[in-house]
Structures are given as structure tokens and as C-alpha cells.
């Protein structure tokens, strides 16, 4: 019995330790974001509490001088268009692959399968030239098109769902005179709702967090998304940790809120996304 | 669209309309054969333009000395590849991947441990699950900045160590070894949550009655892990291993944001990005990218051979 108690205690200690390791770096940054520059200069130590727990001055600075407002707007536009595009493209591909037999079907499937193995980071050297030749460099279109066009995982998720929709539904609709487009629009697409939810969540978080693509393709400051705008904090605010921290907290809070509300969907979504 | 002619196509009874021998008139048949391609046109165009064309171009660039801008370029054969494997400063980035590879071993171990522990009845289970997973969802730049402060002189880490009476006298990001270990540690902090949730999902897919039956048969926790949990996570584990290997080779965000690749923390992708976009050596950068791509494809292939498991294979 005592051995069991010891084991249990050790398990809880390890869990509490892990929680501390995760939360401490974030908590400290949150505290710093509430300190004034004077407090930072006096150096009360990283772990000290701020004098005024409601000091939001750094957040104002981050919003105004750090251009976080336009960053959120740009991110929102990219998110909206890229996600809508991904859902449309993924569901159309899945419908075509699963519900039709046609010549070169195997080849098409193989093209999508093999593409999943090509990591996007490796090919940007050459992708850049193509994006540039379309005149999309340094515009919101570059990330939108890249997010839309290179997402194989969503296609898998849709494919699994389309398979689970009974073919008899298509057939009876066809008997009622519906054509392939009507079937896709009126039957398949609405029934894909759980898959769409998964893709929207997974894709949304990925796009919101992505740094590499906006960094490569949108160098101008007006086109900063939250990642690149926050990255630019490193320069002008380099000595002002209180402002940098406020910027980081501003970026993290939306993620936290989404996570708290959609926990279950997020776990499932990422599980499905990773194991395809 | 011609809905009127489509209506004639009614007698299609077979589910995925297999090759029709007789029945609908020619015009309708052509239209039907075209339908899947209408759905596939946009996706295929995007796939080819932004995945296959770049790969093909990249291989072509890698055999030249192109600078990415000028219309002039010369064929150099495998010269760029020879450079990558013979010039020490170019090859050195592979060694940095070693730190991240070692880190991913730690990461998988931690994830397995916490997944096993939290698959049993534990108080505040959802809280711990959420806390462990949350770092994976955080923006990479925010993580980079948070940990830049964490490792700063007098930052979070120093202050915590100070509480225990330990005063480190060196900068954490000051020497190559220390900097790489710190950065790899950040990567463990960031990615353990994903592995953990994947393992947990696999473990929980084992029906609860099996554990009860095992317990009745007198199996202890270790037996349960060995015979029930281990087999259930095998497919996910092998998937995690490839993700870790290819992830360790293509590290970019954390070191780029935190150190910019200084003090010996430059990774393969940082080097490639610098070659291509700062030094205009598109040819050499392409060769580097081709090498990375080949390594990742090889790793994936080996993994598929070693663990022939269709559970992770969708189509």
C-alpha cells in the first residue's frame, strides 16, 4: 500500500513539475507586460510582481507603435480567404476522387499522396521564383495561394469523410434529377460539416502561427501579419522587454481563448491532421 | 452547365459511375467523363504549380550557378553538390540537427510517460492535458521571444535558479554548445504536447474492459504498459519518429527568431534561406534544398519499409 502511495505522489510531483515548466516562462512574460519601464530599470528581478496589475500602457504601445492592429487585420483577411479556399479545394478533390471512376484516377491520387511527403520548407527557393513570376510577391495573395494550394492534409481529412457518406444518397438524388454539381453542393458539402470544422480549426491555427511564408513573401511593413509584426518588435523595442512581452501576450491570448472554448475539437483535429 | 442534358443521365445506377457501355447519348457521356476533371481542375493546377513545378525547377537550378535575378546562368553540373559535402562551413549545419534529434528522443520519452500516466485516472486530468498541449498551439515568434527573455542574463531561468541558491556565471546563448542545447530545449517545450496528445489518443482507443480484465488477471502497471499500451501506440510511434527526424532536419523558426543563426546555431534551413535570399546563390541553395528533400524522402521510405503498417496510411 505504501509503495503505491509513493508511486502516486511521484506521479503527481512529475505532473506539477511539468505544468510549472510550461507555465512559468509564459507567466513571467505576462507579469513583465504589466510593468512600467521604470520598474524594469530598477530591476526587481524577473519573478517580482508588477506594482500596478492593471497597467495596460505597454499594450497601448504595442498596438500603436508595433502596428499590431493592422497585423491582426492582415492575418484575418488571409485566414478568411485561405481557409475558405482550402475547404472548397479539399472537398472538391475528395468528392472527385472518391465518387468518380475516370482515367488517370490512380495517377491523380498518387500525385496528391507523394506531394504530402515534400516538406514545404525545402522547396521555397524555387517556389519563390514562381510566386514572383505571377507578380504576387509582396502581396497578400502570396500566402493565400500557398496556404490554399499546398495543403494535402485537409484533402485527406475530407477524403475520409466523403467515404463515410453513403453512396445511396448520391444515387437517390441523381434519380431525382440532380447533376454532379448539385449533389456536391446540396448533399456532400453539407454533410461534410464535421470535417469542415476540423479543417477550419487546424488550418486556422496553422495559418495564424505561420512565420516562414509571410516572412519570405511579404517584406513590406504594411503587410505585416501577427508573426512578422511581432518579429519586428525585436528591433525598435530591443531594450524594452515590457513592450515585447505585451506584444507576445497579445498574440498568445486569442490562441488561449480559442483553445479553452474548442478544446475537444482541437485535440481531435490535430490528431486527425497528424495521423492523416 | 447544361442541366437539361444531365437529367437524361438518370439511368446511371452503379455507384461510382463505372464505364457505361450503352445508354446515354454521346454528348452526355463526354460531359460525364469531364465532370471529375472540372472538380479537379483548380486543385490540380495549384498542386502542380506550387509543389511539382518548384521541385522540378529546384533540381534544374541546382545544376547551375544562377543568382536568382540575372538572365544569365551557367551549367555547373554537380559542382554545387560537391560544395555542400566538401566545404566544412556548409556541411556543419548537419551537425546542429544532431542536437534537435537528441532533443526529440527526450521529447518522445516525456510524451510517452505523460500519455501513460494521464491515461489512468488522475485528478485534474484535463487541466494537465491542456497545459501540456497548449505550447504546441502558441505562435512560434511569441515562443521565441518568451524564451529569449527566459535565457537572458537575469531572466526567468537565472531568477529561478537563484531561488535555489545557484548563480550561473555564463550566458545561456553565449557558446555554441550551450546555445544549441537551450534552443533544442525550447523545441522540446514546444512540441512535446503534440506527441503526447497523439499517444494519449492511441492509448485511449484501447477499450477500458481490456484493462479491467488484465487487472483481474493480476497484471501490474508495467504489464499493462507492455502488453496493452505499447502495441496500441506502435503506428503513432513510428509516425512520430519520422516527423521528428524530418523536423530535426528542417528546424527554422526557433533558432532564426532567437539567435538569427549566430553562435553556431545555424540550421540547414536557415543556411538555405540565407544563401538564396541574402547572398543570391540560388543554385547552391537549390542544391542544398534537394539534398534535404532527398534525405527526408529516404527517411520516410526506410520507416515505411521497417514498419509496414497501413493504419497510418490513408488511401
UniProtKB/TrEMBL annotation, chain A:
<keyword id="KW-1003">Cell membrane</keyword>
<keyword id="KW-0472">Membrane</keyword>
<feature type="transmembrane region" description="Helical">
    <location>
        <begin position="12"/>
        <end position="34"/>
    </location>
</feature>
<feature type="transmembrane region" description="Helical">
    <location>
        <begin position="140"/>
        <end position="159"/>
    </location>
</feature>
<protein>
    <submittedName>
        <fullName>Carbohydrate ABC transporter permease</fullName>
    </submittedName>
</protein>
<keyword id="KW-0812">Transmembrane</keyword>
<feature type="domain" description="ABC transmembrane type-1">
    <location>
        <begin position="72"/>
        <end position="262"/>
    </location>
</feature>
<comment type="similarity">
    <text>Belongs to the binding-protein-dependent transport system permease family.</text>
</comment>
<feature type="transmembrane region" description="Helical">
    <location>
        <begin position="107"/>
        <end position="128"/>
    </location>
</feature>
<dbReference type="GO" id="GO:0055085">
    <property type="term" value="P:transmembrane transport"/>
</dbReference>
<feature type="transmembrane region" description="Helical">
    <location>
        <begin position="195"/>
        <end position="218"/>
    </location>
</feature>
<keyword id="KW-0813">Transport</keyword>
<dbReference type="Pfam" id="PF00528">
    <property type="entry name" value="BPD_transp_1"/>
</dbReference>
<keyword id="KW-1133">Transmembrane helix</keyword>
<feature type="transmembrane region" description="Helical">
    <location>
        <begin position="238"/>
        <end position="262"/>
    </location>
</feature>
<dbReference type="GO" id="GO:0005886">
    <property type="term" value="C:plasma membrane"/>
</dbReference>
<dbReference type="InterPro" id="IPR000515">
    <property type="entry name" value="MetI-like"/>
</dbReference>
<feature type="transmembrane region" description="Helical">
    <location>
        <begin position="71"/>
        <end position="95"/>
    </location>
</feature>
<dbReference type="InterPro" id="IPR035906">
    <property type="entry name" value="MetI-like_sf"/>
</dbReference>
TrEMBL record, chain B:
<keyword id="KW-0812">Transmembrane</keyword>
<feature type="transmembrane region" description="Helical">
    <location>
        <begin position="171"/>
        <end position="189"/>
    </location>
</feature>
<dbReference type="InterPro" id="IPR035906">
    <property type="entry name" value="MetI-like_sf"/>
</dbReference>
<feature type="domain" description="ABC transmembrane type-1">
    <location>
        <begin position="93"/>
        <end position="303"/>
    </location>
</feature>
<dbReference type="GO" id="GO:0055085">
    <property type="term" value="P:transmembrane transport"/>
</dbReference>
<feature type="region of interest" description="Disordered">
    <location>
        <begin position="1"/>
        <end position="24"/>
    </location>
</feature>
<protein>
    <submittedName>
        <fullName>Sugar ABC transporter permease</fullName>
    </submittedName>
</protein>
<dbReference type="GO" id="GO:0005886">
    <property type="term" value="C:plasma membrane"/>
</dbReference>
<keyword id="KW-1133">Transmembrane helix</keyword>
<feature type="transmembrane region" description="Helical">
    <location>
        <begin position="283"/>
        <end position="302"/>
    </location>
</feature>
<dbReference type="Pfam" id="PF00528">
    <property type="entry name" value="BPD_transp_1"/>
</dbReference>
<keyword id="KW-1003">Cell membrane</keyword>
<feature type="transmembrane region" description="Helical">
    <location>
        <begin position="99"/>
        <end position="120"/>
    </location>
</feature>
<feature type="transmembrane region" description="Helical">
    <location>
        <begin position="34"/>
        <end position="53"/>
    </location>
</feature>
<dbReference type="InterPro" id="IPR000515">
    <property type="entry name" value="MetI-like"/>
</dbReference>
<comment type="similarity">
    <text>Belongs to the binding-protein-dependent transport system permease family.</text>
</comment>
<feature type="transmembrane region" description="Helical">
    <location>
        <begin position="236"/>
        <end position="258"/>
    </location>
</feature>
<keyword id="KW-0472">Membrane</keyword>
<keyword id="KW-0813">Transport</keyword>
<feature type="transmembrane region" description="Helical">
    <location>
        <begin position="132"/>
        <end position="151"/>
    </location>
</feature>
Amino acid at each position: 500500500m505504501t509503495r503505491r502511495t509513493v508511486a502516486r505522489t511521484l506521479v503527481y510531483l512529475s505532473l506539477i513539475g511539468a505544468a510549472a515548466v510550461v507555465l512559468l516562462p509564459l507567466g513571467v512574460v505576462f507579469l513583465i507586460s504589466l510593468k512600467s519601464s521604470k520598474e524594469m530599470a530598477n530591476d526587481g528581478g524577473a519573478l517580482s510582481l508588477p506594482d500596478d496589475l492593471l497597467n495596460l500602457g505597454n499594450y497601448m504601445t504595442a498596438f500603436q507603435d508595433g502596428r499590431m492592429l493592422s497585423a491582426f487585420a492582415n492575418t484575418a483577411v488571409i485566414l478568411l480567404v485561405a481557409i475558405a479556399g482550402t475547404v472548397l479545394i479539399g472537398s472538391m478533390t475528395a468528392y472527385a476522387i472518391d465518387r468518380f471512376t475516370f482515367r488517370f484516377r490512380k495517377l491523380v491520387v498518387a500525385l496528391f499522396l507523394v506531394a504530402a511527403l515534400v516538406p514545404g520548407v525545402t522547396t521555397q527557393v524555387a517556389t519563390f521564383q514562381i510566386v514572383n513570376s505571377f507578380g504576387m510577391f509582396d502581396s497578400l495573395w502570396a500566402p493565400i495561394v500557398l496556404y490554399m494550394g499546398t495543403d494535402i492534409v485537409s484533402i485527406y481529412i475530407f477524403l475520409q469523410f466523403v467515404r463515410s457518406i453513403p453512396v445511396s444518397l448520391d444515387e437517390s438524388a441523381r434519380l431525382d434529377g440532380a447533376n454532379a454539381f448539385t449533389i456536391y453542393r446540396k448533399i456532400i458539402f453539407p454533410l461534410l460539416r464535421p470535417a469542415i470544422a476540423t479543417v477550419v480549426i487546424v488550418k486556422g491555427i496553422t495559418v495564424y502561427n505561420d512565420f516562414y511564408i509571410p516572412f519570405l513573401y511579404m517584406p513590406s511593413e504594411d503587410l505585416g501579419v501577427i508573426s512578422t509584426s511581432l518579429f519586428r518588435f525585436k528591433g525598435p523595442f530591443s531594450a524594452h522587454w515590457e513592450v515585447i512581452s505585451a506584444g507576445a501576450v497579445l498574440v498568445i491570448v486569442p490562441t488561449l481563448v480559442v483553445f479553452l472554448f474548442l478544446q475537444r475539437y482541437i485535440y481531435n483535429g490535430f490528431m486527425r491532421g497528424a495521423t492523416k | 452547365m447544361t442541366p437539361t442534358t444531365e437529367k437524361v443521365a438518370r439511368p446511371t445506377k452503379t455507384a461510382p459511375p463505372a464505364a457505361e457501355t450503352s445508354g446515354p447519348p454521346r454528348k452526355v457521356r463526354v460531359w460525364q467523363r469531364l465532370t471529375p476533371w472540372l472538380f479537379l481542375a483548380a486543385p490540380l493546377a495549384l498542386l502542380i504549380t506550387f509543389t511539382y513545378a518548384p521541385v522540378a525547377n529546384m533540381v534544374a537550378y541546382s545544376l547551375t550557378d544562377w543568382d536568382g535575378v540575372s538572365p544569365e546562368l551557367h551549367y555547373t553540373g554537380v559542382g554545387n553538390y560537391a560544395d555542400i559535402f566538401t566545404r566544412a562551413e556548409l556541411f556543419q549545419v548537419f551537425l546542429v540537427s544532431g542536437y534537435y534529434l537528441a532533443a526529440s528522443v527526450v521529447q518522445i520519452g516525456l510524451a510517452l510517460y505523460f500519455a501513460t500516466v494521464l491515461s489512468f485516472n488522475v485528478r485534474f486530468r484535463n487541466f494537465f492535458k491542456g497545459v501540456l498541449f497548449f505550447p504546441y498551439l502558441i505562435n512560434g515568434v511569441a515562443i521565441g521571444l518568451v524564451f529569449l527573455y527566459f535565457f537572458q542574463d537575469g531572466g526567468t531561468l537565472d531568477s529561478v535558479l537563484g531561488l535555489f541558491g545557484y548563480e550561473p556565471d555564463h550566458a545561456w546563448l553565449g557558446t555554441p554548445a550551450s546555445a544549441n542545447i537551450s534552443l533544442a530545449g525550447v523545441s522540446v517545450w514546444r512540441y512535446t504536447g503534440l506527441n503526447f496528445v497523439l499517444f494519449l489518443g492511441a492509448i485511449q482507443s484501447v477499450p477500458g474492459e481490456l484493462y479491467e480484465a488484465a487487472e483481474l488477471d493480476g497484471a501490474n502497471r508495467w504489464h499493462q504498459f507492455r502488453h496493452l499500451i505499447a502495441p496500441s501506440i506502435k503506428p503513432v510511434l513510428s509516425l512520430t519518429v519520422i516527423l521528428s527526424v524530418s523536423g530535426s532536419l528542417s528546424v527554422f523558426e526557433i533558432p532564426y527568431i532567437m539567435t538569427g543563426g549566430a553562435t553556431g546555431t545555424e540550421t540547414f534551413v536557415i543556411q538555405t534561406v540565407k544563401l538564396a535570399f541574402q547572398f543570391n546563390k540560388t543554385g547552391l541553395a537549390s542544391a542544398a534544398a534537394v539534398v534535404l528533400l532527398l534525405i527526408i524522402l529516404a527517411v520516410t521510405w526506410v520507416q515505411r519499409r521497417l514498419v509496414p503498417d497501413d493504419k497510418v496510411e490513408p488511401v
